[in-house]
Amino acid sequence: MWSLRFISAEALVSHPRVAQQSLDGVACNIYPLLFKASYLLEQAEVIRVLLEHWPLEDFRLGALLRPNADHPGDLRDRACRACLEACVRGLADHVRRGGAGRRLEVADLTGIQDVQVQRCPCGKALGRWGRTELLARTCCELQGEPCAARRPVEVLADIFVTGGNFEAVLRALGPPGSAPLRVRCLSFRADSLRPGQLLRVLRLAGPSELRRLEVVHNVRLHAGHVQELLAQVGFPRLVALTLPAKAFDAPPAGSATSHGEAALLTSIARELSRMTQLTELSVAFSTLTGKIEKLLGPLRTPLRVLDLANCSLNHADMAFLADCPHAAHLEVLDLSGHCLVDLFPSTFFRLLGRAAPSLRALTLEECGIEDRHVGGLILALSACRRLRELRFLGNPLSARALRRLFAAALCELPMLQCVEFPVPKDCYPEGSAYPQDELAMSKFDQQKYDVIAEELRAVLLRAGRSDVRVSTPLFGSFDPDIQETSNELGAFLLQAFRTALENFSKALKQME
């Protein structure tokens, strides 16, 4: 229920001209209320003026949009383009205005959640890349203007850098002299950058304060680059680290960083051990056969999130995972791409047993789980009473096995909220091979699948578990970052393909 104060604030901001004219008579502690009401109604003009005249020392976007006593609604999943653009423009107006009465010291623009369907009136989102580009462009504009601000406003931001906005971000982070807006990065995502560009921009991004670092997709790192990045830049407060595919591959022979694969891994592990707050590590699609103990053993803090999908783990790796201190603290675990139940049954089930008290999300995609494994899987999952998310796409399970798994295990997990299950093998032509490529994956009997999916939902309904969401996202879940930069990613891949063809043509000419 909305408070009378919020209803009054909503009535005021519904008339933008009246609201702007009334700000001089509004108490400072009413500004947060007016801001949330304006954001709810998408009154961009009012938002901009509120930021221009913001009378408090802090402006924290996520905190202002979360539920409170006046309005229980959570607006943090509204990445509304009009409202967010108004926030940044209002912030620029604030430092332009300056004056002795200006009190704003910190503007925290983090806390927005990017979702697939926008609930704001315009329905148009401004994603993390767009927010980065807007903030960088605004900072660059202000650097060329005489501002009345006596001291800079520190802007806390989640930065997403690609080749498309690299130059603007570089100028925004490293201006000559003082700047009216000083950007501090709390999280940093990089895509479609060269290793040299990544190193250059991270050095300017305030790595001593960085909490989350995601280096993904088309940043082609090898173990030498990773060692150089961690050793030369340093991330003392880093909580979460994501590295791209093949990040632990050996450097090319003769390169400046070719000091030996074992020595590089030891050095990387040593640098990771210096990150005393690191609790989340994602190194999917890196070949780490026999290297897990050397990589994770030196870490000083237990990991809560660990992604080792498609890392070609062996018996020694799984034995270490099952018995190491991290196992008892894991909340999110991804072991996709490993034949766990066939190759490592005892160590895998021991790992699940140790992680069960804390485990919230488990991903076992393309793990070769068949009907004959379901009994053991049911037994192992029964201990995971705090599990909220289970994903096991790409496993060759029949409709009968899925019904058994749902009835005997999933219905009994009290906190379960989300299940992503594979297309039953009954829906594919007999003899279909696993794991499947994208073309084979999409060729199944849709009508048969729909019938089986309804049967599985009926199993949950009969057990009183209508709260569990079930789906089969064949080509992955919605990724707002990839969605936002898809055009740039396509251009990057096209250029990479063109370069490969040119190199191939040169090689043919040399052979001639």
Provide an overview of this structure:
It is built from 21 helices and 13 strands. The N and C termini lie far apart (79 Å). A 13-stranded parallel β-sheet has the order 1-2-3-4-5-6-7-8-9-10-11-12-13. With 512 residues, it is α/β, with parallel strands linked by helices. Helix 1 crosses helix 3 and helix 16 packs parallel to helix 17. It is globular and about 70 Å long. 42% of the residues lie in helices and 10% in strands. The model has no long low-confidence stretch (mean pLDDT 91). Strand 3, helix 8 and strand 4 form a beta-alpha-beta unit.
Give a quick account of the main beta sheet: strands, pairing sense, barrel closure: 13 strands, parallel
In total, the number of strands is 13
Name the shape in a single word.
Answer: globular
Helix content: 40-55%
| Radius of gyration, whole Å | 26 Å
**Low-confidence regions:** none
Count of helix runs: 21
Q: Provide the spatial order of strands within the biggest beta sheet.
A: 1-2-3-4-5-6-7-8-9-10-11-12-13
Mean pLDDT: 91
Q: Note the gap between the termini.
A: 79 Å
